[in-house]
What does this fold into?
Amino acid sequence: QVQLVESGGGLVQPGGSLRLSCAASGFTFSSYAMSWYRQAPGKERELVADITSFGGSRIYADSVKGRFTISRDNAKNQVYLQMNSLKPEDTAVYYCYAARGSFGSWGQGTQVTVSS
It folds into this structure.
């Protein structure tokens, strides 16, 4: 059974940092590209960052370039999102997503709130 469990969200002041983690199980993690998406209230879910199966290529949304870093540890079946210089507009539920071909699976999400 495919399972993706996010953690690390919370309340942080503007300019602060958070590190999100996503623990994967039930599939061959190293064979899947992994992504982080986010969805703010009243907005569509959007891609934040994506990393290929062995981490050779990463892409970022323009809004987070230079502030967020996606990484993965295939030995631990985990993907991470380091978020620095957080802004109020980064407030959203952040989701982990696993993809390979036509297969895709979502985690349950973790709330990130950036507020003073």
About this structure: The mean pLDDT is 96. The first strand starts at residue 3 and ends at 7. DSSP finds no helices and eleven strands in the chain. The radius of gyration is 13 Å.
